[in-house]
Amino acid sequence: MTSSGTGTACLPTSLVGYDDMPFSATATIELTTVRQPVHQLASQALFSLSESIAGKKTSATHSLVVPELIVRKSTSANPAPAP
Question: How confident is the model over 28-57, as pLDDT tens digits?
Fold first, then answer.
């Protein structure tokens, strides 16, 4: 595959953003992005903060939050393997 008129090789390219900002869906090429569960993260942070303010002994905790891949037009399919 070559780019239009330049004679140089053109490989499929993908671009992925992070945080699913509002402009990601409305840009000229809609940006594939990773969406974080912001409300869940904020809720966990506020809970930990309120426990600390209340004087309750807290230890470091680890929480697992699951992000979501929002596929839009900025990613291309995997190319077929060479024969």
Answer: 888 899 999 999 999 988 988 898 899 887
* pLDDT at site 57: 76
Pairing mode, if any, of strands 16-18 and 32-35? parallel
Q: Are 17 and 24 in contact (CB under 8 A)?
A: yes
- 3-state secondary structure at position 6: coil
Taking the whole predicted model, whether its pTM rises above 0.70 is answered as no
43 alpha-carbon distance from chain centroid: 20
Which SS3 state, helix, strand or coil, does residue 22 take? helix
- On whether the CB atoms of residues 68 and 40 are closer than 8 A, the answer is no
Provide the token pair at 21. 């900002």
